[in-house]
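Please produce the structure of this protein holding pyridoxal-5'-phosphate.
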Amino acid sequence: MDYLSRRAREIAPYTAGEQPADRKYVKLNTNENPYPPSPKAQAVLQAFDAGLLKLYPPLEAEALRGAIAAAEGVSPENVFCGNGSDEVLALCLPAFFDEDGAGAAFADITYSFYPVFCAFFGVPYTQIPLEDDFTLDLAKLTAAKAQGVFVANPNAPTGIGIPLAQIEPFVRENGGRVVVLDEAYMPFYGQSAVPLTKTYKNLLVVKTFSKGYALAGMRCGYAIGDAALIQGLCRCRDSFNSYPVDSVCQAVCAAAIGDGAYYAEKNALVVSERERLGRELAARGFFVLPSQANFVFARHAACGGREVYKQLRARGVLVRHFAKPRIADFCRITVGSREQNDALLSALDAFLKNG
Ligand SMILES: *Cc1c(COP(=O)(O)O)cnc(C)c1O
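Below is the modeled complex.
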C-alpha cells in the first residue's frame, strides 16, 4: 500500500550540496561565505531574550522589512521576507504563474531549483540554451512564450554576470510578464537591479542573507518589487505558513543588513580571492569561466569534472560536480578564505601532473 500522492512519488527533488560527517572537510561546495556574520548581528543573537520565543514572531516582520528597505533604498511595502530565498522563489510560482498558462522560462544551465519548483507547483517551463560561451542571450528569453521568466544574475553555476545596462532593456521588453531576477550572488558583483523596481512594475528582485551576509544557517531571503507583486507573494505565503521568518532570524538579519560596511570589506576579500583562485587554477591547466560570484566554474584540460571532484574529496576538499549535459566536465568551486583556497590548490597539485 502506497500512501503517497502521485506528486510526492513522482517529483525529482533538488539535491543540495553534500554535508558528509565522516571527517572534517574544507567545504567549498555550497557557496557559503568564509567569514563569520557581522559582529553586530552576533551581538543581537547573543542578547536575544529567549523568553520572547513563547510569542509568535511579528507577523509582518516590520523591523526586518524596515531595515531591508533602508539598506536597499525602497519602502517597506516593497519588501517581502521568507525562510531563505528558496522559499521566496518557490512562492513566485503560485503567485505569478497559472498551471494552465504559458509557463515559466529560464536558461538550461541555471539554478537547478527553478525546474524543481515548476514541477512541484505544476507550472510548465521552457529552458533556453545558453550560448557556447555560457552567456545568456536575453533576446532568446524575451522571445520565449511564457507567463514569466527567471534569471539568476550572476548566474549559477557559471558565475557569469549580466551588466545592469542589459537588464533594464530586458525588463522593459518583458513588460507584459513578471521578471524574477535572482540576485543571490549580487554582493560579489555590485550591479543590482533593485533601483529599477521603482520604474518597472513587472520586476521582482530576489536576494538572500545566505551568501553575501554569511548567514546561510539563519534561513532568510527577501524580494523587492512593486507593492502589487509583494501582495501576491503575501497571499500565497498566508495560504501556506503565516510565520516563515522566526523572531531570532528577524532580529539577527535586521542587524546584519544594517552593517553594510563590515560586509563590504569581507566581500571585497572574497572577490580578490576569487581573482587569485582563477589565476591559480588557470596556471594548473583549468579553463575558468569569468565569475562575478563567490565561486568559480572550472574545467580541467585533461582531468574530467567527476574525477576532479572525487580526487579532491579523497583529499578532504569538497567541491560541487553536476552530472549534467554540457557541464559534466566542470566543477563549481566556492571561493573560501585564503587558507581554504590554498588547501584546495595543494590538493589539486597532489594529483594533477604537468598543469
Ligand atoms: C544559494 C542560492 C539561492 C538560495 O539561497 P537561500 O539560502 O535559500 O536564501 C537562490 N538562488 C541561487 C541562484 C542560489 O545560488
